[in-house]
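W.,

You were right to be curious about this one. When I first looked at the sequence I had no strong expectations either way, so I just let the prediction run and decided to look at it fresh. Below is the sequence, 160 residues in total, followed by the output.
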Amino acid sequence: ERNLAEYIPLIPYLGAGFVATVLAFGATLTYQNSRDSPLHVHWGKLLLSLILATCLASLVVFVCESMIVTPIERIHFVKYAVLSFFLFFSQGEQSNRRKMLGAFFLAAAVGGLEECLQHLVPTRVFDLRDILMNLISVGTGICFVSLLLYVQKHVLLYDR
């Protein structure tokens, strides 16, 4: 059982998560501006989206950090969230729901397969907790995709 003081070292991770969130939103705004030239940005909704994304990242870091046994396991956060994010955007013209499901299940399958293959390597250990962390990270990537789609649809108004 950990006490609250043990979570103080997580503050840099939360700061990095916030910076990554701001960069992702900035890249989205820049990309949208280069494509369609937005007429107006709902800055209040954008700020609310940034706060929501930061809270989501903080919650995921807090939950997953409590599950970590070795420091190298921190890569699970980034690896599978980024994988699911890129898998979503790499799919062709389909509905967003279908692309989210496809990205979620494919990234989850890759994470599960990677953990199962570790059972065959003598120097590695199979652990169901790692599979759970992979699933949480994949879900986080899909949540960020949803948030970016929300920003694209409700925060940016286009001159059509």
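Here's what jumped out at me. The mean pLDDT is 77. And, maybe more interesting for your project: The first strand starts at residue 38 and ends at 41.

Coffee later to discuss?

I.
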